[in-house]
Structures are given as structure tokens and as C-alpha cells.
């Protein structure tokens, strides 16, 4: 099985995904829900009684969602498989629970078994309870819905597949995300010092190398 698809390296015109449209039946109810998630309210524009658009942006996301009145012909609740990438699935789920949002238990896929009766998601229709046993990047999920039934999924990503992020483009969109990366680097560095049997005075360089290589999907230092 191929783990990554190579893409041309030649420079092309930037095409940045900016907006995802969410179909809702009650605009004010949806506004309360997404505001209650802690998302940033960017816009609430209206033109008389016939048109209204609201825009929210999830924390740390470069893309936003919009919903409103006469902004889409899609049926309310028909948006499914909307992915929110998080660096710590437990922390993300706990945050929603703290905010009073109903969210399912953490789950993972069934390996090469993709058929089943569960709600479809990236790994098929088979959900196994609990986080990925090896806590592999891309392997753990949790799902929730908005009041109309639009379906969202948290997916835990700690290291990108090779070729997805250039080492020179290493970025963090929040202090929480950076802190999670530092904790993983600290744990790995602790094992490194156990193997060498001595204190590593150059640990800042080791941390930096680990974090950059992890995000770029490159082999990690040992």
C-alpha cells in the first residue's frame, strides 16, 4: 500500500482553501453552537430578511466555515466528514466536554477492515473503541455533530506523512500545539539521554531538530 502520493514540485499558483459552507436550518441556533465551541466569530452580515451570512474560524485554523440564510441550497445536516486536525485527541475532546458539547468516545480504525455498520469516516465503516494502540499519527478520532446533524471529526495528527510539509515551513498555529510538540520532544529526548547515559547539553538543538523533522514527516533523531 502506498503511504503518500508524490506531487509535482514545480511552483504553481497558490490555491488556498478558505471557506467551507455548512447548511443549517436555524441560523441563530447554529451561531450559539459554534460560538460555544470557542471558535472566533469573524462576520455576521445581513441584507434585509432574505440573506444572512455568519463566519466562524476554529482556533488555529487557516480556513473558516460559513452558514446563514440563502447561502446554500444543500439540506441542513448534509455536511458530513468535516475534519478538525488536533495534536492531542484527549485534550480536544475534554475541551468540548467542558463546554457542554456532546461528543463520542475516542476511536480508531480496524486496520485493513473497512466495511461495517458504523458511521463512515476516513478509515471506512468500522470503529474500534479507544485511541490507536500505538498512538500513530492520523490514527485516532472522535466525532460530534452540530444541532442540525452536520458531522465533525477530530483527527489526531502529530507527524505529517513525508512530503506534506517542507522542513522550512514548520509552523505552529497556537501555543497549545507548540506545547504538545515540545512535550513529545522532551519525552523522546529523555529516551535519548537514557541510551547515551549522559546529560545532553545541546538539548535545544536536539529538540529543534526533532520538532522540525516530526512535522515534516522525516526520520526522527534517536
Order of helices and strands: EHEEEEHEEEEHH
Q: Return the domain count.
A: 3
Calculate the mean pLDDT score and round it.
88
> End-to-end distance, in Å?
27 Å
The CATH class of the largest domain turns out to be Alpha Beta
Tell me the helix content.
25-40%
CATH topology annotation of the largest domain: 2,3-Dihydroxybiphenyl 1,2-Dioxygenase, domain 1
Query: Which percent range describes the beta-strand content?
Result: 15-25%
CATH superfamily of the largest domain: 2,3-Dihydroxybiphenyl 1,2-Dioxygenase, domain 1
Give a quick precis of the structure:
This protein has 222 residues and is α+β, with helices and mostly antiparallel strands.
Account of the protein in words:
The chain has 3 domains: 17-72, 2,3-Dihydroxybiphenyl 1,2-Dioxygenase, domain 1, CATH 3.10.180.10; 80-158, 2,3-Dihydroxybiphenyl 1,2-Dioxygenase, domain 1; 167-216. The chain is 25% helix and 20% strand. The strands form 2 sheets. A 5-stranded mixed sheet has the order 5-9-8-6-7, covered by helices on one side. A 4-stranded mixed sheet has the order 1-4-3-2, covered by helices on one side. α3 (175-196) crosses α4 (203-216). The longest helix is centred in the last third of the chain and has 22 residues, at 175-196. It is built from 4 helices and 9 strands. With 222 residues, it is an alpha+beta fold.
